[in-house]
Design a protein that fits this description.
alpha+beta, 3-stranded antiparallel beta sheet, 4 helices, 10 strands
Length: about 190
């Protein structure tokens, strides 16, 4: 039996900045030996990402969006994604909504892939990743200037994974999602319907 790690305690947050979605807090903690310390923490409702997969003549193809990302001041190729900014909305509902808004597809099947911590040293944000298959084209429902100017791009899964390996796709949710989906395609557990 493994011994549990020593217990830390979160004593509270002092709000420093309240933004539209995120807020920044100075959080106070107590270490196992009683030492008090503070850390800056970005509090977030979390997000979702969706890997939309089509089989074009048996070839696995991924639907991406290329959108401007202000913090990086550049366009980024990534899978559709969005913040969990609707209170009490289940992550799979957010994923379905974001897929329609950004990529213009509705999923006949949506499968949970994994979740991960976006940057555990600075935020409590958790991102839930889904695989969308049995896709049907629908009208996009764009929100905001970034989505109004985004492009929808389709690439073969093999090519996209090669781009990850070459360092041409750098978005974390996209890298994680592509590698998980690629493994399933390669081991035969994910095939075209029919």
């Amino acid at each position: 039996m493994t011994t549990p790690p020593p217990a830390f305690r979160h004593l509270g947050d002092r709000l420093v900045h309240q933004g539209y979605i995120w807020h920044v807090a100075v959080s106070t903690f107590e270490s196992p030996d009683g030492e008090l310390f503070e850390r800056d923490v970005i509090r977030s409702p979390g997000a979702v990402g969706v890997v939309p997969l089509l089989f074009d003549d048996g070839i696995a193809t991924v639907v991406f969006v290329r959108q401007y990302r202000g913090p990086l001041d550049r366009y980024v190729l990534e899978v559709p994604a969005g913040m969990r900014d609707v209170p009490d909305e289940a992550p799979e509902i957010t994923a379905e909504r974001e897929l329609i808004e950004e990529a213009g597809f509705s999923a006949g099947r949506l499968e949970y892939l994994t979740h991960y911590f976006s940057s555990a040293g600075m935020t409590d944000s958790t991102l839930h990743l889904y695989l969308a298959t049995e896709l049907s084209a629908v009208a996009r429902d764009v929100h905001g200037p970034e989505e109004s100017h985004m492009d929808v791009v389709q690439l073969p899964l093999d090519e996209a994974v090669d781009m990850v390996v070459r360092g041409e796709i750098n978005d974390a949710k996209t890298v994680i999602g592509l590698l998980l989906v690629d493994r399933r395609v390669r081991d035969g557990s994910l095939r075209p319907a029919g």
